[in-house]
Amino acid sequence: CRKKSTQVPSTDSTETNTYTVKYGNIEARTEITGEVQPKTIVSQKSRVSGKVVKFYVDENDTVNMGDIIADIEPDYNQANTLFNTKAALQRAELSLEQARKDFTDKSRLKEMEYISEEEYDKAADALQEAEIMYAQASRQYDMIRDLDVPGTVIHMYATTSGTVIERNVNEGEMVSSSLNTYGEGTVIMQIADLNHMIVSSNINEVDIVKFKVGQTGSIKLDALPYEEFEGRIDKISPKAVTINSAKVFPVEISINARGDKVMPGMTAEISILGDSRENVLIIPIGAVFADDKNQDIVYLKDSSGASSAEKKESTMPPTALVS
Question: What is the rounded CA–CA span in Å between residue 25 and residue 281?
Fold first, then answer.
């Protein structure tokens, strides 16, 4: 809605436009722009550092969780870590077996009173320590157990189902492990669920009060100008972010379209329904003025159709809608 004019119009009939007041329906809408995105995007990272020797999927391919998506040849340090971790588990297992056997023997000897209580306690302590060491080695090995496969390469598996929307490296390139404490690891590819799409938008802080979760609206895409989709505000960020020196609130709007029709990155024009009235008197915004007391007023033609206009105070509440 436009701001009401404070200028009093001329009462000259040659300069005054007229409008017949009538009943009807009216809506207040807010127009925003956004970008189509998958609701869920999962980055795929290797758990070992090394060289990508083979890809099994490429961009636009569909994958299921657990599918092999790449082969990684571990670098020397990574391969050495795998070997040492497995060897440590084997040593811990042997030590545990020996400690159990020794404790069993010491238990029999204690019952026969052939050894002292002190010797028995030492065997019990040794068994407890061996159990702790084995548990620690086992946990460390469990972290990389699925990587310990025969041969010189490690299979990389998809951690979700969906469509490969981006592949960031090529065969022969080196990647870093996601298990490194000093880095987040290389994102090898991204997999998205294109069956559930959203429109992502950023609303300026001065306009955010106009929006709330659950509001509906219509969506048009630049790539599909003759089609209209339905949308609904699903999420409004509780915290503003700064983009190009402006404070904005990220907003997610669902769209009733799948990835076989719309694609990530498409530009969207969204018309959000803010408020509406049915069967009310409709007055053009250009016919509503404010006097020197800031009172809303309108000018009415008399019943004879004379050119002179009659000033009437309007009784519209502050939140009234005008077209």
Answer: 8
pLDDT digit string (tens) for 209-236?
A: 888 899 898 999 999 989 999 999 999 9
Residue 46's domain comprises 42-189
Token code pair at residue 238: 């509780």
pLDDT one-digit tens code per residue, 252-277: 999 988 777 889 999 999 988 877 77
Sheet-wide strand order for 62-63: 41-45, 187-192, 162-167, 62-63
Residues 12, 170 contacting (CB under 8 angstroms): no
Residue 175 to residue 144: CA distance in whole angstroms: 17
Out of 189, 208, 241, pick the residue that ends a domain: 189
Residue that is written with structure tokens 């299979």 in the block: 155
Residues 46 and 184 in one domain: yes
Tokens 């294109």 sit on residue: 194
| Count of structural domains within the chain | 3
CATH number at residue 123: 2.40.50.100
d(CA 45, CA 69): 11
Structure tokens at 112: 């026969």
Residues 169 and 93 in one domain: yes
CB neighbour list of residue 106: distance below 8 Å, 6 or more residues apart: 115, 119, 120, 123, 124
Closest among 21, 15, 144, 161 to 83, alpha carbons compared:
144
| CB half-sphere exposure, 197, CA atoms < 13 A | 25
Nearest-10 Cα torsion for 144, 149, 155, 161: -70
